[in-house]
Amino acid sequence: MQFSDFKEIDLSAIELIENEVHAYPWTRGNFLDSIKSSHTCFMMKANEEIIGYAVIMFVLDECHILNISIKKSMQKKGYGSDLLKEVIRRSELAHSKTIYLEVRMSNHAAIQLYDKHGFNEMSIRKDYYRAKEGREDAVLMGLEI
Ligand SMILES: CC(C)(COP(=O)(O)OP(=O)(O)OC[C@H]1O[C@@H](n2cnc3c(N)ncnc32)[C@H](O)[C@@H]1OP(=O)(O)O)[C@@H](O)C(=O)NCCC(=O)NCCS
Prior knowledge:
The chain has a single domain, classed as Gcn5-related N-acetyltransferase (GNAT) (Aminopeptidase), CATH 3.40.630. 30% of the residues lie in helices and 41% in strands. It has helices spanning 11-21, 28-36, 79-93, 108-116, and strands spanning 2-5, 40-46, 49-59, 62-70, 98-104, 120-130, 135-144. The longest helix has 15 residues, at 79-93. It starts with a strand and ends with a strand. The structure holds coenzyme A. The site of coenzyme A has 21 residues, from strand 4, helix 3, strand 5 and helix 4. The active site is at 102 (proton acceptor), 114 (proton donor). It catalyses: N-terminal L-alanyl-[ribosomal protein bS18] + acetyl-CoA = N-terminal N(alpha)-acetyl-L-alanyl-[ribosomal protein bS18] + CoA + H(+). Acetylates the N-terminal alanine of ribosomal protein bS18.
């Protein structure tokens, strides 16, 4: 398994994964904005194939996870944990004190993943996300490192 920064050239493959795993996927424009804004954008490859990626943003002594996704056929094999561990490793290198993220309240898989890695539920952001019917709350989670 290898980690490396992704570039515009990788976005076709990344968009395929994004559209398959998110009900409200990021657009190519969202990824391009992140690359242009110098967010940390990296992918995880196994046997030369992109199987996941993360976009994180460092602000002062905080790290914010903006996107973290694993290709559908590769889920539930431990790769999400590997990707999250890499996020934590990079945050430590950057001397971040806390990692934050927002997650849909209905996204049990992601909440379980963060919980397993020591993240705590910090607050609820009411009606934070678009949803099929109306809006959905976000859970704000954080990890002190
Ligand atoms: C969330 C996500 C990254 C997890 O990736 P993954 O590769 O399936 O995760 P892993 O196999 O490493 O599992 C790690 C832990 O996550 C939790 N988990 C993963 N899938 C789960 C599921 N379907 N139901 C409940 N818990 C789950 C478990 O705690 C698991 O640990 P365990 O195997 O010891 O039970 C993946 O489901 C995904 O890409 N989802 C779509 C995108 C998304 O929701 N991103 C997060 C937005 S905040």
